[in-house]
Description:
By secondary structure, the protein is mainly α. Among the domains are: about 20-120, Endonuclease III, domain 1, CATH 1.10.340.30; about 220-280, Arc Repressor Mutant, subunit A, CATH 1.10.10. The chain is built from 15 helices and three strands. Strands 1-3-2 form a three-stranded antiparallel sheet. A hairpin with a 2-residue loop joins β2 (about 270-275) and β3. α1 packs across α11, α2 packs antiparallel against α8 and α13 (about 220-235) crosses α15 (about 255-265).
Amino acid sequence: xxxxxxxxxxxxxxxxxxxxxxxxxxxxxxxxxxxxxxxxxxxxxxxxxxxxxxxxxxxxxxxxxxxxxxxxxxxxxxxxxxxxxxxxxxxxxxxxxxxxxxxxxxxxxxxxxxxxxxxxxxxxxxxxxxxxxxxxxxxxxxxxxxxxxxxxxxxxxxxxxxxxxxxxxxxxxxxxxxxxxxxxxxxxxxxxxxxxxxxxxxxxxxxxxxxxxxxxxxxxxxxxxxxxxxxxxxxxxxxxxxxxxxxxxxxxxxxxxxxxxxxxxxxxxxxxxxxxxxxxxx
Length: 282
């Protein structure tokens, strides 16, 4: 597996650094987003905010504009809050222990362990949609989160946490794919229960821990509408009376339009000032 990983490792910019802040930025961006799409956003964002101090000091509206186009903008808000906590509580250095990392906004078990493995070289396992698929198929059964994490941790060879986890991520992305996996030549096929059994249906990776499930259609969704409004607000204030037109929802129930606005207000991504909506905090 390590030999395969060394030969097939994808060249991604966050793999060229061990800076904990840059690793954290990458892992937050990679939540629910494919690596190829993240690359240009990561390079631009880290150019603007090369350390926690820069991000912590920036107004939220600026951080949101820097994030624009990547989606799931709550991640940007949480990353800025994390930067502020890192500055206030950890002297500007992203912490190197699991509990402190999990205390940062928007940092869950995968992201925390990814920072430990990829920035600090710890022999901990990361379980995401790609590695979760490999784990479930190797076990030949659908896994609970606790079982998946335990199996993943047991599998990490001592002293090789960085390259092992990167290799499993690549294995899931390049070979152990959701559809039509490339089992021939897979470096872990001999130990894969699902492959040895002839890949029976149902696939054990389906709904197993860490493995993503298909999302509802994006077109016409509230998520699409939120993105449209945030992009408009990045250019300046939007009158409340114009929101439906900005969303392309002029013919929709006004209650749906207001629900989109309310969700952004509740997330702290926009604020009202008089008859207008503004990006960021008041």
